[in-house]
Design a protein that fits this description.
Blueprint (H helix, E strand, L loop, with lengths): L7 H11 L6 H14 L5 E4 L6 H11 L7 E5 L5 H9 L16 H4 L4 E5 L6 H13 L1 E2 L8 E2 L3 E6 L3 H7 L4 H7 L2 E4 L10 H16 L8 H9 L5 H15 L25 H23 L4 H8 L3 H11 L10
Parallel strand pairs: 1-6, 1-7, 2-3, 3-6
Antiparallel strand pairs: 4-5
The chain binds adenosine-5'-triphosphate (ATP).
Length: 334
């Protein structure tokens, strides 16, 4: 079946709506990869280190695809003991075991018409891998203790923070299951690989924190921001979020935020060398995006008016929006 591919602007808007933030080439490549496979119903495997945004990417895939009107149901394999996996996924029939007093739908049934997001799939025990493979091959399942097979109506998106290909080589992940999952593979970059995104991420995090705590927006001083840009971030965006949150809570007053001593990147083992040009470009990119958003907000998404406010020619302003992947529709009154 030929699927319709969302436009780049639509993809950018959906990614922003689910909370994905960035302006680096790696970020734009990710949005483009999600855009291209969103319309297909094929299984997608998202691979990337912890905290790189795999769950957000899975949500973006869901809301970009034709199943967006259905549910998005996550299942965390890391939190599920092997003995519960099949029951959680496929449900059970009344009487399947001592406590099964009535039929219970599993997560596949709950995700009907939508997306089943199987997170931490690299932690699946061999028995659960076999059950999942059967399900992916047949597109149907039988609740535990049940007699009827049920046709599944879900798209499967899986995520792993270890390489499954390596798992196949080392013998802890089934090759046949890997090939079923990896119909389309998308790799998420580490934060160190896309350090240009740090200022924009920090800006978005601080805006969210200010709104959450009901206080005026705050910003880091230049030294702190430079330090955040050059830290190695082994825990990726999640770790950056923790450091920003701690700084936000620990800095009193209304001046610029500083990094609490001995925390986060300051305590990291080997800071990357300062990349002046990279950081300058990243700061300018984040500044430009924030500026364009402010102006579009003021102009209620009207590009001609926004260009006039910015003192720019409309075509040039439009090109700046496109380069930043900003959709004017997001700023129009609904
Ligand atoms: N590009 C991004 N923009 C904004 N926030 C992000 C981005 N990537 C990750 N985050 C934030 O970082 C945190 C971790 O993201 P997420 O849970 O999607 O990562 P993950 O790769 O699924 O992690 P894990 O493998 O540990 O489950 C979340 O709070 C999320 O909002």
């Amino acid at each position: 079946m030929l699927a319709s591919i969302p436009s780049p602007l639509e993809a950018q808007a959906v990614c922003e709506r689910v909370g994905l933030v960035g302006c680096s080439a790696a970020y734009r490549d990710l949005v483009d990869a999600l855009r291209r496979c969103a319309g297909l119903d094929a299984t997608v495997l998202l691979e990337g280190a912890t905290g790189t945004g795999k769950e957000l990417a899975a949500r973006a895939l869901h809301y970009l695809g034709r199943r967006r009107g259905g549910p998005f149901v996550p299942v965390d394999c890391g939190a599920l003991p092997e003995t519960l996996f099949e029951g959680e996924l496929f449900g059970h029939a009344r009487g399947a075991f001592t406590d099964a007093r009535r039929d219970m739908h599993g997560l596949v049934a709950q995700a009907r018409g939508g997306t089943l997001f199987i997170d931490e799939i690299h932690t699946l025990a061999p028995r659960s891998q076999a059950a999942l493979l059967r399900f992916l091959q047949d597109h149907r399942f039988r609740p535990l203790g049940g007699e009827q097979w049920v046709e599944a109506d879900v798209r499967v998106v899986a995520a792993a923070n270890r390489s499954l290909e390596q798992g196949v080589r080392e013998g802890w992940f089934r090759g046949d299951l890997y090939f079923r999952l990896n119909v389309v593979g998308v790799r998420l970059s580490t934060l160190a690989e896309r350090a240009e995104d740090v200022p924009m991420l920090v800006h978005a995090m601080l805006a969210r924190l200010a709104a959450h705590y009901g206080v005026a927006p705050r910003a880091f001083d230049a030294a702190a921001l430079a330090q955040l840009c050059s830290a190695p971030w082994p825990g990726n965006v999640r770790e950056l979020e923790n450091v920003v949150h701690r700084s936000f809570l620990q800095c009193d007053g209304e001046g610029p935020l500083t990094l609490p001593g001995g925390t986060g990147p300051a305590a990291a083992p080997a800071p990357a060398p300062l990349d002046y040009n990279g950081e300058r470009a990243a700061l300018l990119c984040a500044f430009e995006a924030a500026y364009l958003r402010r102006i579009l907000t003021a102009a209620h998404g009207n590009v001609t008016q926004a260009a006039r406010l910015a003192g720019k020619e409309r075509r040039l302003f439009g090109r700046m929006l496109k380069r930043q992947g900003i959709a004017r529709a997001d700023f129009q009154d609904r």
